[in-house]
Amino acid sequence: MEIHALQQIVHQTRDARRKQTIPKFSPADRDRLIHQYHPDYRSSAYRPIRFGPNAGDKTVVELAALLEGDSSIQEHIDLTPQYTTDVLVVGGGGAGCAAALHAHATGAKVILATKLRLGDSNSVMAQGGMQISVAPEDSPVTHFLDTLKGGHMQNDHELLKVMVEEGPSIAKWLIELGVLFDRQADGNLHVKKGGGSSKPRLLTCSDYTGLEIMRVLKDEVLNQKIQLLEFCAAVELLSDENGQCTGAIFKDLDNHRHVVVAAKSVILATGGIGRLHIQGFPTSNHYGATGDGLCLSYRMGAKLDHIDTFQYHPSGAVYPEQLIGALVTEGIRSEGGHLVNAKGERFVNELDTRDVVSSSIIRECEEGRGIRTMSGRVGVWLDTPLLDAEHGPGTVEKHFPAMMMQFERFGIDISKDPVLIYPTLHYQNGGVKIDANSETNVKNLFVAGEASGGLHGRNRLMGNSLLDLMVFGKRSGLTAASRAGSASQGKLTVNHLQRFRADAKKHGNSSGVISPMILPAYTRREAERTVTN
Amino acid sequence: MAQEDTNVIDQPEVVRHKMVTIEISGKKYEVPEGITVIKALWHTGQEVVRGAGCLGGFCGACATYYRTKDDPKVRTCLACQMAVEDGMSFTIMPPFPARKALYDIRSLKDPKQDLFNLYPEAPLCRNCNACTEACPQKIDVREGVWKAVFGDFKSVSEMFMDCVMCGMCTPVCIADIAPNLVALYVSRAQGAHFTEKPQGLDTRIKEIQDGRFNDEWKKVLAMSEQELADHCATVK
Questions:
Q1: Which class does domain A83-124+216-309+429-496 fall in?
Q2: H/E run at residue A378
Q3: How far apart are CA A278 and CA A45, in angstroms?
Q4: Same domain for B184 and B205?
Q5: What is the CA radius of gyration of chain B?
Q6: Does A104 touch chain B (CB under 8 A)?
Q7: Which is catalytic among the residues A299, A333, A426, A458?
Q8: DSSP A189
Q9: Chain centroid to CA A214: how far?
């Protein structure tokens, strides 16, 4: 059927649905739903890691192969450094920029290296907002409890307390740098309610929150004249004779030469893994989200946490084909947008946590109540015109300009027509285990942002990622910088590779792939197919 | 299942097996109709390092010039957000060497006057409107430059909230203005200097410093796993 004909059911049932309240699932129903439909529980997608710090732990096969992968670096490589610095930040997204700025502000020498351009990241795409408990009826403790509940009680309490308590001062810092958060009439920060949160707590810059923060932070990194190594991909870390981190080796993607950087400490802010397309899912992630930091730290002996759990964002676009996997912000549901199946029915409380909402969408589609596209994809409706009906004409356009423009380019007006969505691979809930200063169990190796693990438990709450980046970017930057004065530069070796390779050999050799991946191999894949997706 | 059959979208513009001829940087290729410009590059076997970033239309890395069949007009787009069609010709824009002024946003004394020191070319706009036409985000860039010069920083910050910093407004400017950089400065100044300080935020920061939540923290952190789970369930 023509798409407009299929959408009629959404328009026809809108008024009746507006009168409905859909209760949240009971804890037992919620667990049953997740165990049956959430991709984290598809056991065939998982296998145990054979060796290394997490030997025996299960993760998705795509990641296991990379963790067990071999380094591109041979042990006789010349390690004369081209650059020497106090703090080396790897990654140019939110956590990387925050780490670099805070370390630089203490007077330490900082180099920021990134495999794409400064700012090309997932952070720039964050639309939903940033959770900070600024409202009078809210508190850091409530923020803590909401997050814990969303993370299935598995969150690291110490990390979580630090994050929620430092939130307000982060907001102040960003405002001083010129970030334009949405305001109430009285000048106070406007807060929106996010999925899984008991109080309105999302600070937003319309639906450009990540873009606005990143425009400002990038500009600030340039203004502070922090040394940049763009288009330089980290391919190996360096260690001294005691196994402490002392720098990194990069591959310059323009001339394919190695670049050796000696550093007193290294902060990996390398982001997530969406571009591994776990279980064949499309992704909302940026081009470089290939989990490089996980592989690099793992070979150095850093322990990973919660690497068996991933977040599938409930609303990835399914139609038009060009936007497959792209995010339709959760903000639409925060403002009251309904999820509607092919029969015109709601089937979940739209503001439940992401894992619950995603599982319920998968259930609708597997039980035949989804809408299919001719390319074989299936999804459910997100009733975007409802927002205009509810809050007055022009609401969608005013509150979601980014979303409007994205669909408009393909002739779709989301203020008039609902959009078709299905869960998309969005976030790595776990990562490298860190302490409250963002340091790993390898001395002088820090990990900040999505690459780290523990904070979000088994499911990250919407809006907590932007705050995570800023808080642990800052803490890693400050701690790393504070060591610069007293520490001397350690020796540069790749001795950890010997250990890693010996371990691999004992367990039947490495997986046969070279890691980190750096960029997804779309060139080859696209060329092999006649139809792309 | 009958129900499923009726719930299938008949997509008019879906990616089809039909191949179209396009031109990438002056060279002809056959690619499937309807794929995005960036996927067309991958399809033709070209490694993309520069020219791809977020792939979601936000980072501005894939600024592209394109022209459609028989149309003399060269247009701009983001390569990850544009579908190819028969006869289309495109080239990804290389990084343009625009001058970015350096400043410490927090210590500016008179940001509206400082604009003329930092970007002295800003008031030299000759109204040609090329920047507005070049903007893939449909921002009225020319109007924004004028508003910046006349000190209406608030309007500029609102108009440029959509700006992805792709920089396509810059090479077309006959007065050598980099409008996106001017707007970024203006927006930051607006946020840092001309926006009311949120009182509630300062109150909350002070409450945390003064230990207002300490008793509650003590109670929560002393709970057993089960007590904590039960307590979380009561938070509504």
A1: alpha beta
A2: strand A378-383
A3: 8
A4: no
A5: 25
A6: no
A7: A333
A8: B
A9: 15
Tell me the CATH number at B168: 1.10.1060.10
Distances in Å between the Cα of A471 and the Cα atoms of A58, A110, A394 are: 29, 18, 35
Give the whole-angstrom CA distance, residue A275 versus residue A156: 27
Calpha distance A49→A61 (Å, rounded) = 9
Structure-token pair, residue A30: 């919620």
Same domain, B181 and B109: yes
B97 domain residue, yes or no: no
B60, closest residue in chain A (CA to CA): A120
The verdict on ipTM greater than 0.90 is: yes
What would the two tokens of residue A526 be? 């696209």
Select from A324, A314, A362, A336 the least CA-distant residue to A459. Answer: A314
- Across B90-114, b (16+ Cβ under 10 Å) vs e yields bebbeeeebeebebebeebeebbee
How many pairs of residues across A and B have Cβ atoms under 8 Å apart? Answer: 262
Q: Give contacts of A122 with chain B, Cβ < 8 Å.
A: 54
In chain A, residues under CATH classification 3.90.700.10 are: 3-37+313-425
Does residue B79 sit in the same domain as residue B134? no
Distance in angstroms (rounded) separating the CA atoms of residues A357 and A348: 7
Give the domain range for residue B122.
105-193
Residue A8 forms contact with B (CB below 8 Å): no
Chain B partners within 8 Å of A411 (Cβ): 13
Give the integer Cα–Cα distance in Å for B203 and B205.
6
Q: What is the pLDDT of residues B19-35, one digit of tens each?
A: 999 999 999 999 988 88
Displacement of CA B103 from its chain's centroid (Å): 22
Q: Which residue has the tokens 């596209």?
A: A373
| CA A188-A189-A191 angle, 5° bins | 130
B chain contacts of residue A178, beta-carbon cutoff 8 Å: 105, 187-192
pLDDT reported for residue A526: 54
Domain membership of residue B48 (yes or no) is yes
pLDDT range class, residue A524, cuts 50, 70, 90: low
Q: Do B22 and B78 belong together in one domain?
A: yes
CB contact under 8 A, A406 and B57: yes
Mean pLDDT, range A11-19, rounded to an integer: 96
User: B175-233, pLDDT tens digit by residue?
Assistant: 999 999 999 999 999 999 999 999 999 999 999 999 999 999 999 999 999 999 999 99
Q: Which residues of A374-400 are buried (b: 16+ CB within 10 A; e: fewer)?
A: ebebbbbbbbbbbbbeeeeeebbbebb
Q: What six digits make up the tokens of B127?
A: 């109204």
131-190 in chain B: CB under 8 A from chain A = 137-138, 157, 161-165, 184, 187-190
At B22 the three-state DSSP class reads: strand
User: What is the gyration radius of the CA atoms in chain A, in angstroms?
Assistant: 23
Instruction: Give A30's DSSP letter.
Output: H
Taking CA atoms, A187 is separated from B111, B195, B233, in Å, by 21, 8, 33
In a domain, B1, yes or no: no
Residue B151 one-letter amino acid: G
Q: Which CATH class is domain A3-37+313-425?
A: alpha beta
Q: Are residues B128 and B205 in the same domain?
A: no
Residues shown for chain B? 236
Is residue B187 in a domain? yes
* Structural domains counted in chain B: 3
B187 and B145, same structural domain? yes
pLDDT in tens, B70-86: 999 999 999 999 999 99
Q: In this structure, are B54 and B109 located in the same domain?
A: no
Are both B225 and B188 inside the same structural domain? no
Domain of B37: which CATH number? 3.10.20.740
Q: Please work out, in degrees rounded to the nearest 5, the angle formed at the alpha carbon of residue A112 by the alpha carbons of B62 and A461.
A: 75
Pick the catalytic residue from A102, A313, A363, A456. A313
Q: Nearest-CA residue of chain B relative to A200?
A: B236
N-term to C-term CA, chain A: 21
For a pLDDT cut of 90, what percent of chain B falls above it?
88
